[in-house]
Structures are given as structure tokens and as C-alpha cells.
Amino acid sequence: MSTTLLSATEVAERLSDPARLARADATMTEGWEDTGHPPIASAVLVPVVMHPSPTILLTLRTAKLSAHAGQVAFPGGRMEPGESAEQAALRESWEEVGLGPTLPKVLGRLPDHLTGTGYRITPVLALVEPPLQLIPEPGEVELIFEYDLSRLLDPALPQKQRAKFRGAERSFWVWPHERHYVWGATAAILRNLALVLR
């Protein structure tokens, strides 16, 4: 593991730098085009919690959901008609984890990610000052946890894995975690964030 650490100030500077943001690319899950429908517009908040050693706020979705059950995700969801990505990400974060819409300092966007399930996700970058008093919405979120941002600085991470999806072999990114499987769209967005921060 890399021993490189960034202070909260350095993280804020790097995430506000247009030249660094330009390092990230639009991404897609293999097989997104198999859906046969135009992608559904959605947005997620990528909240960087500004501890002395910053973290990324993530959720574990409940096992009862009809889509993406039990997966690690950023707070977010479908965009309502007339809503911007920023408005949708802040609204969904309030609904899912109780993150007040005035708390995140929105910095900008990472490039869109097209999922294999037919969503076009716009990741909205934001800084959040601790302490936070978050409440998971029990119908959607089983757990709220924080991922150590310093892991994104390790050039040996993440790993590419392969699995069968809809009858075809697909490759996808995975970030290591002691308890949770961080993969798919969440992992691809984290990888773009890593490219900006490194």
C-alpha cells in the first residue's frame, strides 16, 4: 500500500484544479449498449469528508431493493425532469443518508459513467466538513461508511476482475475493502477520482 497521504487542504486544491479534473474520462460498464434503450439520466454525490485524513462517504444498499441490492454505492439516483445533476445528487443524498443539501460544498463533476443496467450516472464532487450526523433511509440504505481516500493514491489499486453478466464475460474494476465488495460503477468512479488526485 502506498504511504502517500494528502491533507484535507491538498485534497480540496486538487479537486478544484481544472487541469487535474481533465485527467478523468467518461467510462462505461461493458455491455451497457445491450439494454436496447437510451440511458436513464441519474446523478450521484461523491462526498469527500474533510477529516485530517480525508475519506469518501459510501453506502451499502439494502438487500431488499429490486435493483443493485446489497451493493456499495454513492448516494444518488434518477434525475427528475428539469433537475440538474447537482440538484439530483443533493436531493438523493438528503433522502438516502440525511446529508443536508446545504452541507456539501459542490466542486464540479467527474465524467459520466454508463452502466450495464442502462443508466448514465453523472458524479458530482463535493467536500463535506465533519462531524456528520447521518441517518440511513432504511428502505434503501443498510449502512453508511467511509472509505479511506489514501487508498486512491496507491498506483497498485484497483484491480480488474472478470465475471459473467447477461451471458457474456465482462471486466470491471474492484477496490479493496475489509468488509465490502466495492465494484462496478462505484469502483469506476473511484478510479476516475484517483486519476484526479494522484
Number of strands: 12
- The CATH class designation is Alpha Beta
So, the CATH homologous superfamily? Nucleoside Triphosphate Pyrophosphohydrolase
For the biggest sheet, the summary is: 9 strands, mixed
Return the CATH topology.
Answer: Nucleoside Triphosphate Pyrophosphohydrolase
Total number of domains: 1
Helix content: 10-25%
Determine the structural class based on helices, strands and strand pairing.
alpha+beta
Overall CATH architecture: Alpha-Beta Complex
Poorly predicted regions:
none
Tell me the number of helical segments per DSSP (H or I, 4 or more residues long). 4
Helix/strand order: HHEEEEEHEEEEEEEH
Strand content: 25-35%
Quote the distance from N terminus to C terminus. Answer: 14 Å
Mean pLDDT: 85
From the spread of the alpha carbons, the general shape counts as globular
CA radius of gyration is 16 Å
Structural overview:
By secondary structure, the protein is of the alpha+beta class. It has a single domain, classed as Nucleoside Triphosphate Pyrophosphohydrolase. Helix content is 20%, strand content 33%. Strands 1, 2, 3, 4, 5, 6, 7, 8 and 9 form a nine-stranded mixed beta sheet that branches. Strands 10-11-12 form a three-stranded antiparallel beta sheet. Strand 2 and strand 3 (55-61) form a beta hairpin. The radius of gyration is 16 Å and the shape is globular. This is CoA pyrophosphatase.
Produce a short descriptive summary.
This protein is α+β, with helices and mostly antiparallel strands.
